[in-house]
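Give me the fold.
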Amino acid sequence: MRHRPPLRPAALAAILAIALTGGCAADPDEPAGPETASDATPSAPGSSSSSSPGPASTARSSSAPTSSTAPTSSPRGPSPTATPPTPPAPPFIAAATWADSDYGVTLQVAPTDSGRRAWGAGDAEAAWREVLQLAPDADTPGMWEQFDCHWTWARLLEPDKPTWNVEPWRPVVPPERMLAEGCNPGGPEV
């Protein structure tokens, strides 16, 4: 069955807007720039400090470090040569179970920890294929769109939600309405 494309461009634009407007703000308790000699507190000769690598000195230099004294990591993150973390891998879905509700049947989709962290290209589609392996009769109009909405938004807004419920009785709606109705068009969340 053919489905509408996922909401990826709109989701990525929203995440980018959040990051650019404050999601990546610096810690107000830390200085914004590099530390200078006037910022440092001199340490006594022979003493050590956890904030400065290498042998103790009476003052820190504000000149650029040479290759022999360049730090391999900083308190703000790993060095550029650090191995990047391994991206989450399938399985993304732990269970997909049909249940009854006051409004009709609902498919309760339980993501794995990996599914909660996966943001790679094609991960939503791979997760939906896992859902269809667990519940083949879920491939009905509107179900993919509800799932994709939950995959994109519920993981951000309710990261610990145990299941994402998708229902075949909900209407097929445009992406804007799907998002405006909290991934549950045509009725309350069940």
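Residues 90-178 form one domain.
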